[in-house]
């Protein structure tokens, strides 16, 4: 399946500044494998040491949280738009 992946600005430094890309992937596993091949530095920001989706990474497919679509077993459809959203925390001490 040809899908579009939106890369948030927080991760674009790892994708050469690319705001989005189109790739072939049938599911989340294949998507991550494709991203690993193109952008190896991105891997540690998407998955933990066990290869599982990072706890604070939210993934949306056509604006729906992938967890409500079946999670990693969700089968992408032609033309799906995937958005990777890492939770960003921080601030300053007062």
Structure report:
This protein is an alpha+beta fold and 94 residues long. The protein has a single domain, classed as Beta-grasp domain (Ubiquitin-like (UB roll)). The protein is built from two helices and five strands. Strands 2-1-5-3-4 form a five-stranded mixed sheet, covered by helices on one side. The longest helix is centred in the middle third of the chain and has 11 residues, at 28-38. It is globular. The N and C termini lie far apart (49 Å). The model has no long low-confidence stretch (mean pLDDT 91).
List the helices and strands and how they pair.
Elements: E1 2-6, E2 20-24, H1 28-38, H2 43-46, E3 57-61, E4 64-65, E5 81-86
Parallel strand pairs: 1-5
Antiparallel strand pairs: 1-2, 3-4, 3-5
Unreliable spans: none
Provide the CATH topology: Ubiquitin-like (UB roll)
| Major sheet size, sense and barrel closure | 5 strands, mixed
Coarse shape: globular
Output the CATH class name.
Alpha Beta
Keywords:
globular, 2 helices, 94 residues, single chain, Ubiquitin-like (UB roll), alpha+beta, five-stranded mixed sheet, 16% helix
């Amino acid at each position: 399946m040809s899908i579009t992946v939106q890369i948030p600005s927080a991760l674009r430094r790892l994708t050469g500044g690319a705001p989005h890309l189109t790739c072939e992937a049938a599911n989340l596993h294949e998507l991550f494998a494709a991203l690993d091949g193109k952008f190896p530095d991105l891997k540690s920001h998407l998955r933990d040491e066990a290869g599982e989706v990072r706890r604070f990474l939210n993934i949306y497919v056509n604006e729906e949280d992938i967890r409500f679509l079946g999670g990693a077993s969700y089968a992408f459809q032609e033309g799906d738009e995937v958005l990777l959203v890492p939770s960003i925390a921080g601030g300053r001490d007062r």
